[in-house]
From TrEMBL:
PANTHER family assigned to the protein according to its UniProt record, in alphabetical order: DNA-BINDING PROTEIN STPA, PTHR38097
Disordered as annotated region, ranges: 59-89
Pfam families per record: Histone_HNS (PF00816)
One cellular component term from this protein's GO annotations in UniProt: protein-DNA complex
Gene3D superfamilies xref list: Histone-like protein H-NS, C-terminal domain
Localization annotation: Cytoplasm, Nucleoid
Top-level lineage group: Bacteria
Species whose genome carries this gene: Rhodanobacter glycinis
Name of the protein described by the UniProt record: DNA-binding protein H-NS
Length: 106
């Protein structure tokens, strides 16, 4: 199947490139599936399970939980900040007003 690229316009080339990339992704996925099957077969042939080799953390996410607040807004005690992530506006405003971080600490 030879395609004469010189006779294709811009849209046809983009369409061809898109189809080629899609096919490339399909081939890669097929190869990954085959490789995964080979690995599982080898592990099983040796008398082990996947979990024996790689552990049982597969598919589990580590829970980070919540962090206790570290700072409190003196003007509105309901507003707190754990000290992680982007600083809240009230925290920056208090620093600009001359307060120190230790003044806002809980």
């Amino acid at each position: 199947m030879a395609v004469d690229l010189k006779n294709l316009n811009h849209n046809q080339l983009n369409d061809l490139i898109g189809k080629a990339q899609q096919r490339q992704n399909e081939l890669r996925k097929e190869k990954v599936v085959k490789l995964r099957e080979k690995v599982h077969a080898l592990i099983k042939a040796e008398g082990y399970s996947f979990e024996d080799i790689f552990g049982s953390t597969r598919g589990k996410r580590r829970s980070t939980g919540t962090v206790a607040p570290k700072y409190r807004n003196p003007a509105d005690p309901e507003q707190t900040w754990s000290g992680r992530g982007k600083r809240p506006r009230w925290f920056n405003d208090a620093l600009k007003a001359g307060k120190k971080e230790k003044d806002l600490a809980i």
